[in-house]
Amino acid sequence: MDIELSLRSRQILEAIVEDYIATAEPVGSSAVARRHALTLSSATVRNVMANLEEMGLLTSPHTSAGRIPTEKAYRLYVDSLVALRQVSREEKRQIISHCRKVGVGLSGILKETSRTLSQLSNYMGIVIAPSFTADVFRHIEFIRIGQRKILAILVSSKGALQNRLIETDDDYGSEELIRMGNYLNEKMQGLTINQVREQILEEMASEKAQYDKLLARALKISEQAVRAEGEEIFIEGQARILDQPEFSDAGRMKEIYQAFEQKGLLVQLLSRCMKADGVQIYIGTETSLSQSAGVSLITSRFVTSSNTVGMLGVIGPTRMGYSSVIPIVDYTARMVSKLLSEV
Amino acid sequence: MDIELSLRSRQILEAIVEDYIATAEPVGSSAVARRHALTLSSATVRNVMANLEEMGLLTSPHTSAGRIPTEKAYRLYVDSLVALRQVSREEKRQIISHCRKVGVGLSGILKETSRTLSQLSNYMGIVIAPSFTADVFRHIEFIRIGQRKILAILVSSKGALQNRLIETDDDYGSEELIRMGNYLNEKMQGLTINQVREQILEEMASEKAQYDKLLARALKISEQAVRAEGEEIFIEGQARILDQPEFSDAGRMKEIYQAFEQKGLLVQLLSRCMKADGVQIYIGTETSLSQSAGVSLITSRFVTSSNTVGMLGVIGPTRMGYSSVIPIVDYTARMVSKLLSEV
DNA sequence: GTTAGCACTCTAAAGTCGTGAGTGCTATTC
DNA sequence: GAATAGCACTCACGACTTTAGAGTGCTAAC
Lengths: 343, 343
Hints:
Two copies of one chain form a homodimer.
Chain A: H1 7-23, H2 29-35, H3 42-54, E1 58-59, E2 68-69, H4 71-79, H5 89-100, H6 105-121, E3 124-131, E4 137-146, E5 149-156, E6 161-167, H7 174-187, H8 193-205, H9 207-211, H10 213-226, E7 233-236, H11 250-261, H12 263-275, E8 280-282, E9 295-303, E10 309-317, H13 322-342
Antiparallel strand pairs in A: 1-2, 3-7, 3-10, 4-5, 5-6, 8-9, 9-10
Helix pairs in contact in A: 2-3, 5-6, 5-13, 6-13, 8-10
The first copy, chain A, binds a DNA duplex (30 and 30 nucleotides) through helix 3.
């Protein structure tokens, strides 16, 4: 690795990164020498900067401009970030008060959270609702609550509940529903809810279902009960990104927005984040969002009372205020977890 | 009114509007004379254009550029649009096939619709889910479906149904729930669902509820049952608007996005549209979205099987291809209505 | 190893200028 | 009197040049 950096080199790199984060402009040797109280002349700094460039940590847009940190530099910077700015009291207050503004149901809370993240960070806030379908299936129950209306209650092994109201084409009797439940409970033990659904779809296509009308009816309802709801994603503060000078031209912006419209991409990216605990940071191409867009992503998991896992975070330019955003994301995730487990 | 226009003036105005819609550039007198097969010299056209400018139908960005239609001109143009381009077979096919892609539930369909609108029009598609709370309350019923779980079924006078699952802090008995239902059904007759909610909130605050614990319990659940779900809005194709040359600079774009983020504004605007039947068109400041943003809105209502009303449409620049978008919106609204009433 | 000095490079901003599209006015034609 | 041809005038836009200044790399001195 490239941790082969002298103390001084690291300090200078840090100074450059921070300067660039603050100003969005290439930073020159004399600027570093001045700002950075270390009594060094610009010439010395220049030498060091030349080294750093050789190591792939800096680039210059052209000969007579200052230098810009590369992704590698951000990575190094973030990894060595020791002094994380604490979440200020005011910010804590805001996060908590926003959390309290319990919207309507889970979606409401999460949307509000997304907005809070955006407001505090000044970048985009993003929240993904806890997904249920990756959990292991434990139990399902169908309740007839009216003509052609069935309530399905699905329980995962982690104890998470999901209720779904199903409207059917024809009527199902209570006993039939109980039988259906028993059938599934017996047969699907140990599979994840996703797998259960696949299994059902398979059976629906099988020969047996063609002839056994009763079975076909049962499968039809069951499939609806375990069907995945589209992952809910809440992105707020999209306008804020326009404040960033690097996105002020239409071409780049368009790229970003388009990337977001295919939410599939995001989901894929973010499901990665769900696996690990704590705050996760993806810089530039590490996000695999769009090679050129130059966005970074800071995320963390949160959990609900039923142990399902969701994801929240902030999307901003690579040149993002990591030191302040990281603790915000961290704290918010904790608060949301707490809030959701209380309920 | 300004319908005091000679045939020729109107033809020229129309030519200018269409040219400008096509090219986004100021159109000059000679361009009109050429394009517009009418055998007129540019000089004559110039005279007419000078008149139109005086009447507030055209402006010139500067002395030696062509002229641009004002909002007033668009209005006139749209109002006098006789020859609406028909929806092509291909477009019909797309609309229908998208409709068939029934997503998960109502939200799924509407989201898909929004996307379709965006794709066909090349502007932004927008759909607002049918709102329920403006309907007149007819009947409510609470069903106990488990410990601390109650299903509320709400029926409006138009026959629309809304089911809501309520999780409570403590347990409610079946008889208590029936009594609660009867109480509300008797007392709230004739009010809209919105009013019912207000009424309940009022009673909750009243002295009586302070002392009558049973009543307080009842009101608490009832309130949840009739609470409005945040209006669901689906906006798709936000990236597309970046294709429009007039929005290529960051400032204007930001305005637009910000306007959309306060969905409240949109809802307000769009609830106006719901009142009237057929396609509605709002041009520029008529949208009251943001004075300067220069966006237009073409909308139409759709209805569900239960007679609740939703809204769909297209948002684009004032310089929008009205003649092709209007029929698309119209046709889509019809199709969605049809689809939703079949189900 | 550090620093001062200096020549060199290259961009961004400011100025210059010609071009051409488009206008408004007037004299002329039908 | 409406339509047109002609013409002088205006003004943004693009191409080009110039200038200023920020920043670099190198070398020689400390």
